[in-house]
Amino acid sequence: MMLRFLRQPSGRLASIFAALLCAMTAVMGSYVYSACQKASADYTTLISDIVLAQQATPQLRTALEEGRRLPSSEQIEYIDYFISLSKQHLNNIKSSIERHRYLISDVEYLNNHFSELNSRLSDLNLKAQKAQQRPELVDPLQRVAMDIGGAQSWLYNQLLEEVRAISVQQRFVMQRLSIAVSVLLALMVSAAITLCLAVIYLHRQRNVMQQLMLTDELTGLYNRRHLVNVASAALTQAQRDNGSLSLMLLDIDHFKQVNDTYGHPTGDEVLRQISKLLRKLSRPSDTLARIGGEEFCLLMPNTTTHDALQVADRLRREIEVNTLSGIDLLANPTISIGVTTCHGGSLTFEQLYSYADKALYQAKALGRNRAESQLPPTEPTPYKNPQAYAHLLISEPIDS
After folding, report:
1. DSSP code for 383
2. Parallel, antiparallel, or unpaired for β 371-373 and 335-343?
3. Between vectors from CA 118 to CA 115 and to CA 121, what angle results, nearest 5°?
4. What's the pLDDT score for residue 13?
5. Do you know which PANTHER family this protein is assigned to (predicted)?
6. CATH fold label, 224-393
7. Where along the chain do its domains lie?
8. Ramachandran region of residue 254, left (φ > 0), alpha (ψ -120 to 50) or beta?
9. Which CATH code, of 2.60.40, 1.10.150, 1.20.1420, 1.10.3860, is assigned to 9-196?
């Protein structure tokens, strides 16, 4: 069913539209996820680390300047403290940056400055160790430390500017995110509606196909396939309930002459109108089917031969006196009917059909426009004198 649907133009368009909607939904979903990650990034810790480092740098520089008046050993201690604290701030900031993957690309150009500062601090540490033995090296160390402090201040200012810029971008991302979420929801709803419509269409197509498999296209009656299925179930039920099941075959008399004289379109209209009349006259519990060109079958559960013959005669009389609308025929069509009955589901459908067909052949042979019954050998006749009973039910045959 799905392959048949996809082969149709509407099915192909629906599938293409659904595929586009799904693709757009996937792209939009990916964007929304990325935007959510970017918008939800928390830079509080990083900003705190940068601010602390910024505040500590001038204090360290001030301490270095004041330490010039102290002995060389104390100046070296100040320098060591400056080196240790500076490295700690740089490592904290570097670690915070690495936790924010959306920030890494924006501050990538500062990586060299981090490496250079770490290298200079390590070199300053080595020189400070040498200065412990050579006091004359302390003053140059003070100048180097001051230069490193200036470089740190510049680096921290740049980092703060980048974080501020990203915070501004976050606000714009949040605005775009709200729009993207709305679009995503609309796409998802559209895709869901499209899929639901496709499912409904497929369900309807399946029902239509099933209906076509079970009904006759011209008359709208059930076809032989459905009749056989219903008959099998009815025979099983009759066997279970030990009830009667009657089968009636109906054939339009001289239908070939109608087609030859008035044309097949007129013949089709005759079939449609007679089918409509038969469906109107049959009981709700009966199953009416068209099983051949002009041949119909009526399956009647819980119906004896006597009752079936009464129904057959009523159908025959109604068809005989009914004037078909919109069709100018010399005479109203008539039907011949064959009836059979089995009790307790003792026969198969093929056997039941065979007896009804023999009865129909007998009705044709006796002049048409009449109903005849042919019962299995094990079935009782409806009356002790079947011929007298048939004479009461069946009017004089009319050769049409």
Report:
1. S
2. parallel
3. 150
4. 61
5. DIGUANYLATE CYCLASE DGCM-RELATED (PTHR45138:SF9), REGULATORY COMPONENTS OF SENSORY TRANSDUCTION SYSTEM (PTHR45138)
6. Alpha-Beta Plaits (3.30.70)
7. 9-196, 224-393
8. left
9. 1.20.1420
Highest averaged pLDDT of the listed ranges 100-104, 258-262, 296-300, 326-330:
296-300
pTM (predicted TM-score): 0.51
* CA–CA separation, 203 and 220 (whole Å): 20
Find the angle CA(215)-CA(370)-CA(295) to the nearest 5 degrees: 20
Identify the H or E element spanning 238. Answer: helix 224-241
Q: What is the pLDDT of residues 366-377, one digit of tens each?
A: 999 999 999 988
List beta partners, residue 252: 335
Is the Cβ–Cβ distance between 311 and 335 less than 8 Å? Answer: no
- Give residue-wise pLDDT tens across range 198-253: 778 777 877 777 777 888 889 999 999 999 999 999 999 999 999 999 999 999 99
300 φ/ψ angles, rounded to the nearest 5 degrees: -125, 100
* Angle at alpha carbon of residue 322, lines to 265 and 332, rounded to 5°: 55
The beta-carbon contacts of 106-114 under 8 Å, at least 24 apart in sequence, are 106/162, 106/165, 106/166, 107/158, 107/159, 107/162, 110/155, 110/158, 110/159, 110/162, 113/151, 113/155, 113/158, 114/90, 114/155
Q: So what's the pLDDT on residue 50? A: 79
Place of tokens 């209906």: 211
Residues with a catalytic annotation lie at 294
Cα 299 to Cα 287: distance, rounded to the nearest angstrom: 5
Chain center to CA of 319 = 49
